[in-house]
Amino acid sequence: MSNPKKIKAYAVLDGGGVKGAALAGCLAAAEERGVEFIGFGGTSAGSIVALLACIGYSGSKLKQIMTEEVKFTDFLDDAGKKLNKLKGKIASAETAWQPVSAFFYWQVFNSFKRELGLYNAQKLKEFLLQKIKSQLPALELEADISFYQLNQLKRPLLKIVSSDLRTKGPLVYSGQGGDEQSGSVLDAVRASMSYPFVFKPVQVNDRYLVDGGLSSNLPVFLFEKERRDELIPVFAFDLVAPHSEPGQEYGIKQFGLDMISTALESNDFLMRKVIPKTIYYIPVSIPKDIGTLDFGLSKERRIELYNAGYVATTTFFNSNLPQLDQATTSVEALQALYIPPTIVTPLLMVIARQFQEHTGATNVRANLMLPTDRSTLLVVYQFAMDNDPDSDLELPLGTGSCGRAWQERDIVATDLLAARQDGMSKALQNRVRRDRKAVLSVPIFEWTPTAQPRTELDRIGVLSVDTDASLDATGWVREHKRYVNDTALSWSAILAKLLDKG
Question: What is the pLDDT of residue 18?
C-alpha cells in the first residue's frame, strides 16, 4: 500500500503572463501537504511551471527559479525596448494630443505584418533547455527535448495547451498520442505562451499556434480521461485578476489590454461554474496593480506573487482538507479529502436500521467504499464494523458485490458466498466476517442539481449493507425489492450530496 500521506493527483496550472511565480507557490504549498502530482498541465505561464515541475524541481526550487532566475525581459529579443516604446507612445497619445512618430508606428505595423508579433522568445527556449539539462543529466547533450524523451525517463505526465488558429481551438501537446500532439517540449511551451502580438506565432507545417489562453486559460479538461479511468483527483490552480477600475477616461491602452484579457479569460468564465466536484478548484487572487505584460516585474513583486499562491493554497487545504495533515492511514487520508466519519457514520446507522426493520435482514452492517489511486475500492466509512477484520477492506475494482455494482452502475444484491468468490483472492475472502450471508451494493454517482442519465455521471463510491440472514430470507430480491431499491437509491443520492465538495 502506498504512503497514505501521499495523495496522488494531477495539477492544472492557469495562464497569467508574468504571474507564474504564484503557481510555484501553489505547488510548494500542495507539496507540503503531502500531495504527489503524477501529472502537470498548463497554459502560457502555467506551461512553464508545469514543465519545470515535471522534470523534478521541488517547490522550494521552483520558488528560486520563478522569483530570482526568471527575468521576463530576458525572454524579449531586445530586453523589451520595442514593447516599452510602443506602450509609452500609446500612453502619451491618451493623455494629450501630440505628434507621434509616424515612422515608429510604420515600423511596428510592418513588424506585425511580416512576422505577426514583436518577439521570437528564443531565449526562453534556451533557458528552459538549460533547466532541463541541469535536472536531467541523461539529456545533457540534447539540442532539443521531446515529450517521448520525458516519458522514457519516467517523468510525470506533461500536457501543454496552445491555440491553433487554423482549427480555432486548443491543440494539446503531450506524449500520450491519439489526438494530442507530440514533438518538442520547448516548442510546445513557446507556442503556449505566445501572447498575441507580443510574441510571434509558432508555425508547425500549415498551423499557426498562439497563446493557449485563447482556447482555455484553465484547461481542466486535460486530465479528464485519467480522472475518470484512474479515479485520481485533479487540483486546478486559477490566477484570478481583480476587475479593472478605469479612471475618468477609458483610453486605447486599457481598452486594448482589456480586449485581449477578455479573449483569454472569457472561455473559462462559465467553465468555472460547472467544474466537476471531483476537481479541487483553487482560486489565487492576484494584486490588481500587477499586469500580464509587466515584463520588468521586480524580484520583490515576484515574491509577492509566490506568497499569494502559497497562501491561497494553504488556506484552501486548511478550510477544505484540514484533516489531511493528521492522516496516518489510507482510510483517514480519504476521509480528509471528503468529510469526517462523525458525519457519515450516523447516516450509515440509520440505513442499517431501516433495512433491518423493513426487510428480513438481521444484524445489518453498512459501509461506504470510495475509489483509491490504486484502482481499488476501500471501506472508508462504516457502521457496526469497528472490530471486524473487514472494517478497512480494500478490493480491486470489479471484484465482490461492490465491484459489480461499480462496473454495472446498478444495484447488486447477492449471496455473499457467491460475492466472495467473484474475483476475490482467498486472503480477501478470509477477511470478510464469516457469519455474513447476503450483501446489497448500490453505486453512488456525483451529485448534480439536474436530472442526468447515470451514463453521463461520474461514480464516486459504493454503499453496501450486509446481513447474517440468507438472501432469500431478506426478501431483497423478491417481496421487499421495490422498498430496497427505492431506499438504496434515495440514500445514494443523499450520500452523493454529502460527499459533494462544492
Answer: 80
CB 495 within 8 A of CB 463: yes
| Measured distance between the N- and C-terminal CA atoms of the chain, rounded to whole angstroms | 29
Q: Supply the residues annotated as catalytic.
A: 44, 211
pLDDT tens digits, 23-38: 999 999 999 988 999 9
Closest by alpha carbon to 461, among 312, 328, 277? Answer: 277
Bridge-based pairing of strands 376-383 and 365-371 is antiparallel
Q: What is the DSSP string of 290-317?
A: --TT-TT--HHHHHHHHHHHHHHHHHHH
Q: What percent of the chain has pLDDT over 90?
A: 46
Q: Name the region of 79 (left: φ>0; alpha: ψ -120 to 50; beta: rest).
A: left
> Which amino acid is located at 247 in the chain?
G
The Cα 75–Cα 105 span in angstroms is 23
What is the spatial distance between Cα 139 and Cα 132, in angstroms, rounded to a whole number? 8
Angle between helices 45-54 and 185-192 (to 10 degrees): 150
Beta partners for 381? 368
**What band does 228 get if pLDDT is binned at 50, 70 and 90?**
confident
H/E run at residue 441: strand 438-445
Q: Which of these, 307, 322, 304, 296, lies nearest to 26 by C-alpha position?
A: 307
pLDDT value of position 3: 45
Residue with cell 486605447: 252
Q: What is the DSSP secondary structure assignment for residue 187, as one 8-state letter? A: H
The pLDDT of 3-22, averaged and rounded, is 81
Helix (H, G, I), strand (E, B) or coil at 352: helix
Q: 213: helix, coil or strand? A: helix
User: What is the distance of C-alpha 478 from the center of its chain?
Assistant: 44
Distance CA 121, CA 168 (A): 23
Task: State the helix-helix crossing angle for 252-269 and 81-95, rounded to 10 degrees.
Answer: 110
User: Distance between CA 39 and CA 329 in Å, rounded?
Assistant: 23
Q: Residue 374's pLDDT is what?
A: 84
Instruction: State the pLDDT at residue 368.
Output: 97
